[in-house]
Design a protein that fits this description.
The complex is a heterodimer of chains A (238) and B (326). Chain A has 238 residues and is mainly α. Chain A is 76% helix and 0% strand. Chain A is extended, with a radius of gyration of 25 Å. The longest helix of chain B is centred in the first third of the chain and has 32 residues. Classes of the chains: A mainly alpha (238), B mainly alpha (326).
């Protein structure tokens, strides 16, 4: 009886770790394969049978990309757009989030619902009309249109996220500051915002990764090579 | 939606002076940038899409008013039917794999095993890979000429598989790549939901002689059923709206087998420059999204799910375990 149970437990443990190791290999495999390929020479990449480990190991691909391709420019474009997008989204989002968390005003629920409801509009549904509008107003193929679209599409979820963080900051802190003669606005900028920093950092990471990983908007709203974003550059450089 | 006028009356029955409104100046000016942004970049374009869907267009020139003509054209187009079927196949195929894989791994990772943090980190990895890179990685792996997967297949004595070029396999390849990239999302949400289940419930179950299968059926499943529905809806929406993965991996081919509705919208707009058809199909996708989002909201309202302060649209768990252990 005891032996049987022990056998069963061993089997369960083996199955558990077997599943985990297999899943980890599947999860990491493609990434590691891509990493390995990056160190291979051109004949090494198409060698049959495939080289499981790159031999000879070379850094020439990295040299090529850094010195002789447009990818560094794409990298900087993406970095710039992503940082501007994060700044705009956070600036807009933390004000709206604070109003949502602390103020009562006529039409509050309606306005907030309006902002949140735009999260229901899928990007792909409005890309064609946005393209037409952007081209007409001359914003196509500029940093501005990318930053605007990314921010506008991230604002609803970020407002909600930041509102949650502000609500977790105790009101007493602001009240204490205001008793000491601090204005409501100053209490927001100098007390609430610094306390909510971890939340803002989380929001910033979400927005940054979203912009960094986006391919669709980048490919539809830019056309010239100097404006090209990272994900588009990756595909084109193949 | 609350009407501002009615609100104003309830706030200040006596005066309508401008000063009454001025005291709301700060919150209004705090909200207005966000409002302006979403109105300009999300609301206006969706109305413009409605408008475009009712007109003939030639590249960017808006032509004759055709009313529901574009919708009729789309409804009768066999390639649109094909796209809708492809979308449903893609969404359903991905869900059928992602939900069990996500739940299974979450169940394992919720147990007191060794190296739990390590495995959790490793298994989340594919999620941080972008769709573009996912498509590129998988097309290298599955390449018929020098990909390692086909090498193993032929080494085992089978004939090579054209993963992307074969019309009967391309969709399965696409689903596999999508599952690889997106299962961590389901896994994380399931894991978070599982962690809200107090261990006392399982102890009580064991004392009553319940097997682990029964514990899962009568304790785990009822608690996570809400999160399960939320994951199904969120994944459905995500898969239905995604474009990049199929655009890069298969481009909709071979013979339109992987041309989902969302990809068709993108191609109509930015390859064929047919803005009215793109808007028409875009509106169709929007309608589908609204239905599913309302379902999602209803679910959130009905049950004790809450929007946790850690993740925008992320539902972390149930506020109170909605279980009845009889």
């Amino acid at each position: 009886m005891v032996q049987q149970r022990r056998l069963r437990e061993t089997l369960v443990t083996m199955a558990t770790y077997g599943t985990l190791v297999t899943a980890s290999l599947v999860a990491l495999g493609p990434i590691l394969w891509g990493l390995g390929t990056s160190f291979k020479t051109s004949p090494g990449v198409v060698a049959m049978p495939p080289q499981w480990f790159p031999s000879p190991l070379t850094l020439e691909n990295y040299q090529l990309i850094l010195l002789n391709s447009s990818l560094p420019r794409c990298f900087l474009n993406s970095l710039f757009v992503a940082l501007c997008g994060v700044l705009l989204t956070l600036a807009v989002g933390c004000h709206a989030g604070y109003a949502a968390a602390r103020y009562e005003f006529p039409g509050k629920n309606g306005l907030l619902l309006l902002i949140l409801a735009t999260a229901m509009i899928p990007g792909i549904s409005i890309m064609a009309p946005l393209y037409v509008v952007a081209t007409r107003v001359g914003l196509h193929d500029t940093y501005w249109i990318l930053i605007l679209i990314y921010s506008a599409w991230q604002v609803p979820s970020i407002v909600w996220l930041i509102r949650g963080f502000f609500e977790s900051v105790p009101r007493d802190l602001e009240e204490a500051a205001m008793i000491d003669g601090c204005s409501r606005l100053r209490a927001f900028y100098q007390i609430v915002l610094p306390i909510a920093q971890p939340g803002l950092a989380a929001a910033a990471i979400l927005v940054f990764v979203y912009i960094w990983n986006d391919f669709l908007i980048a490919t539809a709203f830019t056309i010239s090579e100097p404006m090209r974003m990272m994900q588009v550059g990756l595909l084109i450089s193949l | 939606m609350h009407l501002p006028v009615a609100e104003e009356r309830s706030f200040c029955p006596a005066t309508h002076s401008i000063w009454r409104w001025a005291k709301f100046g700060v919150p209004y000016s705090f909200v207005s940038p966000a409002l302006l942004l979403v109105v300009l970049v999300s609301f206006y374009p969706i109305f413009y899409a409605f408008r475009l869907s009712l007109y003939e267009t030639d590249y960017m020139a808006v032509g004759r008013f055709v009313g529901p003509g574009n919708f009729l054209r789309a409804a009768l187009d066999p390639r649109v039917h094909n796209s809708i079927l492809a979308s449903f196949g893609y969404v359903f195929g991905s869900l059928v794999l992602v939900i069990p894989i996500g739940l299974g791994l979450a169940l394992i990772l919720n147990r007191p095993i060794r190296f739990r943090g390590f495995f959790r980190t490793i298994l989340i990895f594919p999620w941080i890979v972008s769709q573009t890179v996912t498509a590129m990685l998988w097309s290298w792996l599955l390449n018929p000429n020098f990909g390692p997967v086909n090498y193993v297949i032929s080494a085992l004595g089978f004939s090579r598989v054209m993963f992307v070029a074969n019309p009967n396999i391309a969709m399965k390849t696409l689903v596999a790549a999508n599952v690889w990239q997106s299962y961590p999302y389901a896994m994380i949400l399931f894991l978070a939901a599982l962690q809200t289940i107090p261990s006392e419930l399982y102890e009580a179950g064991k004392i009553d002689g319940a097997s682990s299968v029964k514990c899962f059926r009568y304790i785990t499943l009822p608690v996570i059923s809400n999160v399960l529905m939320v994951v199904v809806i969120m994944c459905t929406l995500h898969y239905f709206n995604m474009v990049t993965l199929m655009y890069v991996l298969t481009g909709g081919g071979p013979v339109y087998r992987t041309e989902t509705l969302s990809l068709k919208v993108f191609l109509e707009a930015f390859a064929h420059w047919d803005m009215s058809l793109a808007s028409t199909l875009g509106i169709t996708i929007f309608a589908f999204n609204v239905v599913f989002s309302l379902l999602y909201i209803k679910l959130l309202r009905r049950e004790s799910l809450y929007w946790a302060p850690g993740g925008g649209t992320t539902v972390i768990g149930t506020r109170e375990p909605a279980v009845e252990v009889s």
